[in-house]
Amino acid sequence: MFDLTGKRALVTGSTQGIGYAIAKTLSRYGAQVYIHCSSDDEKAKRIAAELGTDLWVTGDLGIQGCAEKLYEKTGGLDIVAANASVQFRTPWDEIPPEEFDRQINVNLRSTLELMQVYIPGMQAKKWGRFLAVGSVQQYRPHAQMAVYAASKCAIQSLVHNVAKQVACDGVTVNNLVPGVIETPRNDAALADAGYARKVLAGIPAGYAGKPDDCAGAALLLCSDAGRYITGTELVVDGGMSL
Predict the structure, then answer these.
(1) How is 64-79 classified by DSSP, letter by letter?
(2) Residue of 139, 148, 207, 228 marked catalytic
């Protein structure tokens, strides 16, 4: 049920953190996975080599048309995990236009664009998996990340909308929703002992997750094991959203 042999996949933002863990797991279960990062060719190539593949692409998803350029390099795929995102910490009343645009473009618009270029091919084959990556901030928005949280809420609405329209073609569209995960993005914040105590106090499990905690959930949603799951959000947060 979890065997992905013969499947071709793209995981955006997969040179580190959650994206890397997802790419590693899909590869371990047989998929041919394209590693992606925004601009560092050497880093993408190095991470791909670590996973035993020479499949890698770069492209800034904040730039309109990036999804089409990625498609030109990868061709049609069976699995797309839209993991790449941008996050700024700014009080709501100080958010500048450039931060708003960057987060909306990378987090939300590129998710739609990736759907638009890759899902039609999945529909034609009558098999496909599109996995968006949301955030626990859909339920518990951080006071200094208003736009980031809003973009993740919008992604969930997009998932609901598209999933209903393509389910009849054997394509599932789901949203993986991580909580506080120990990734490079969170390293500095969690290194502050006082801040870390406050954050962990809001997680019933009592600890931050690891990237691999998200990988099993992604495997379920990207394989035949999850064939009857679509339009849903799978929350991996240690209970933080409760």
Answers:
(1) TTHHHHHHHHH-S-SE
(2) 148
Contact 209, 238 (CB under 8 A): yes
Which one, of 38, 147, 48, 35, lies nearest residue 101 by Cα? 147
Q: Would you give per-residue pLDDT tens digits along the chain (242 residues)? A: 999 999 999 999 999 999 999 999 999 999 999 999 999 999 999 999 999 999 999 999 999 999 999 999 999 999 999 999 999 999 999 999 999 999 999 999 999 999 999 999 999 999 999 999 999 999 999 999 999 999 999 999 999 999 999 999 999 999 999 999 999 998 888 899 999 999 999 999 999 999 999 999 999 999 999 999 999 999 999 999 99
Q: Are strands 79-82 and 32-37 parallel, antiparallel or unpaired?
A: unpaired
Say whether 195 is catalytic: no
Dist. CA 118–CA 78, nearest whole Å: 8
Domain boundary assignment for the chain? 8-182+210-235
Does pTM top 0.70 for this prediction? yes
- Cα separation, 80 vs 108, in Å, equals 15
The C-alpha atoms of residue 67 and residue 75 are separated, in whole angstroms, by 11
Tokens 């933002």 locate to 13
Q: What architecture does CATH give domain 8-182+210-235?
A: 3-Layer(aba) Sandwich (3.40)
DSSP code of residue 35 = E
